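We treat protein structure as text, and this decision shapes the records that our systems exchange. The remainder of this section carries one protein's record, kept here as part of the documentation:
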Amino acid sequence: MIKSKNLRKMGGKVMAIVLLSLPLLSSCDSDDDYVPSREKKISVGDYALQTKIEGKGSYTVVFISGLGESLSTWNKVQPETADFATTISYDRGGIGKSDNAPGIRSSEVIAIELDRLLINSMVEAPYILVAHSIGGLHARAYAHKFPDKVAGMVLVDVIHEAELLIGLGNLPEGLTPELVLEQIADEQNMERGMRDEFIFSYLSAEQVAEASFPDVPLHIITAGLADAEESPDSRELRLMLHKQLADKIPGAVHTIANNSRHHIQNDDPELIIDSIKKIIEKSI
């Protein structure tokens, strides 16, 4: 195990970037009184994923949650979206009510898992991917691997690959990104599904850094307020990276949720719903 003093030698700024995803992705204030309407487990091979499908429409909106978060994180967004579209949310392998998933849990693997789920759920493409936090890496991996199935994307305060690549790209000799992330996961007592994704998040960032965007409408929504555990520098870094990403993709729309923290789906769900509607209107 890496000693804590060796981790501290990496420097406060580097560790702040590495840990950016940690408290933010496990602090979602879900509505505990919400009763899911149509949940069931769907097989993706040797294991099954807890899934909720609601609504009906020509487009299917696919909700992809943050690290360690269940499908309930979309409780304020999915029901209203189901008024005008087919919607599907799910717990990734090892998270919530889903079965544990074997092997490496990188974004490329999770994209394949998602495609199997969508096929076996019998929800039809084209898909509009709505992803939060680390789910943004998985959504981008999916869009790169299955571009013909994607009609649009809404990235909700997602982690940018550079946050991880910068924070873990120049480690002291003897340390690897996976070792550092494994140490953090152990110290935080992460459950299996969350832990596996976290440990392989650097690999996910490397994969997404090489991924392309399909030529579809893209909305990027960035939280304007920092969470209590988040440094102002980390928030400014994410805002800058989101702006750069939007500037790089022709036609991309970048919106700052001025009154929201990381979980925009709780603080300003209508902003996400409006982005979904605009993508559908543009695609018709």
The CA atoms of residues 160 and 264 lie 16 Å apart.
